From TrEMBL:
Protein name as catalogued: GH16 domain-containing protein
Pfam families for this protein: Glyco_hydro_16
Recorded superkingdom: Eukaryota
All residue ranges annotated as the GH16 domain in the record: 1-166
UniProt GO MF annotations: hydrolase activity, hydrolyzing O-glycosyl compounds
InterPro entries the UniProt entry points to: Beta-glucanase-like, ConA-like_dom_sf, Glycosyl_Hydrlase_16
Example of a GO biological process term: carbohydrate metabolic process
Family (UniProt): Belongs to the glycosyl hydrolase 16 family.
Amino acid sequence: MPRGDWLWPAIWLLPSDDAYGGWPTSGEIDIVESRGNGRDACGPGQDNWHFGSTLHFAPQGGKSAFLHTHSEAAAPSGGPLSDAFHVYGLEWGPEGLYTYIDDRSNIVLAVNFTKESFFDRGSKWEMTCFKRGEGGRCDSWLPSLPEWDGGGATKDPWNGSALPKAAPFDRAFYLQLNVAVGCTGYNDWLFFPDHLCKDKPWRNGDKHTAESDFLGSFESWWPSWGGNVTDPARGASRNASMQIESVRYWAP
């Protein structure tokens, strides 16, 4: 994984077609989302030593009940993810899916498809972690209203599926690997929240100035990418990139 302040590496999947509707109604699978920042830069455990796995889903666009299907973990070695290659795996079948790191025994996120549909799952109250302790462990949880009311006017877009409890994760997805830089927005759960990230050079709500604010702090974050402030044309170091040893896929 890359090393560098405000880098956002991800290994994730999106549906090959929006059979159930636009994002996130047709689903999203995040095997890995991490950060390039050093230790605890965005709160305990929110750094390049840790990563999260998440499923995004909702019966209408623009929302996601991801808090029901999210988990975070660290490398079994205990070191930064940027120091060595790791295996980031996904096992996925009609009865459920799970993500793991390095070995199938190191499960990060496990979601069972047989017990309840995603519509029923998302209709329940969510639990938001608002305080993390050592190693990113959640110390305090806060209940919050669900993204939709299963007994109300919201319709279930997935009930026509041949595998209704697995939908929208019952269709073909494609793999993406990318490194983004920063993000903006107004929600507290964003990847670089204002109230948690130390020394962040932009505010998420200042969408008109966020990019210029970020660039204006070039001297503070460019060295963390391995770049030379006095000679920026030399570029960042190799350590600021996502380095891929292999991508492997086995069909059922």
